[in-house]
Design goal:
alpha/beta; 8 helices
Length: 218
């Protein structure tokens, strides 16, 4: 049986508090690492980390910090997957973080949407063209062993959390999980729902409502 453990940290909860929220990520790294160590010490055999928006920056920063710490090696071996939903991370920063981490935990899944209005605003605030969560395609992370799940076709409203906001996408993801997962344990693409594009080390799955439901019925 699985146990869900939630981690939170200070946030202004308002667009005008964005700088404060980003600074809070640095403050929260040690706390998240401590939580993961406690979960491991409690007897967890496998740990899957799921994060949303700036929580993705916190997660990858914590992984980078842990990768350089010998004391975290026991916990590191138990991390059996990382899922980033709409990650609010500068693409170049993510590349630097990944380089510092070395071998990324597998599977490493990134949910993106080119219609993510919140990330479009974040990009403008930081003077960038885009964030990791609204990249155009897998070519921008082609050197990394990651799977990019493009949910643009499911985006409504702000498009910042399609996996939770879209009932049709929730249904598809639920059926995929029941049937064995998006990815096999060795990182290979398993049951799919959409168009698959492989660019060097990265794989992109461009999900569409029609393709997804068709894939479930086959």
């Amino acid at each position: 049986d699985s146990v869900l453990v939630h981690y939170s940290w200070p946030s202004r909860g308002h667009p005008l508090g964005y700088a404060y929220d980003r600074d809070s990520v640095l403050f929260a790294r040690d706390g998240l690492q401590d939580l993961l160590e406690q979960v491991s010490a409690a007897g967890a055999d496998h740990i899957t980390i799921a994060a949303h928006s700036l929580g993705s920056l916190l997660t990858v920063e914590t992984l980078r910090q842990m990768a350089s710490s010998r004391s975290s090696s026991a916990v590191w071996r138990k991390i059996s997957g990382v899922i980033l939903f709409s990650p609010d991370i500068d693409v170049d920063v993510f590349h630097e973080q990944a380089a510092a981490i070395g071998e990324l935990p597998q599977p490493f899944v990134i949910f993106t949407s080119k219609r993510d209005k919140a990330l479009a605003l974040s990009a403008r605030l930081t003077g960038e063209r885009e964030r990791l969560g609204n990249i155009d395609g897998a070519d921008e992370v082609a050197d990394l062993a990651v799977t990019v799940m493009d949910t643009t076709a499911f985006s409504t409203g702000a498009g910042h959390f399609d996996a939770a906001d879209s009932a049709s996408l929730l249904a598809v993801l639920g059926q995929i999980a029941t049937a064995g997962g998006v990815l096999e344990g060795d990182g290979r693409v398993g049951l799919l729902a959409g168009t698959v594009v492989t660019v060097r080390n990265a794989t992109q799955i461009i999900m569409t409502p029609v393709a997804a439901m068709s894939g479930m019925s086959n």
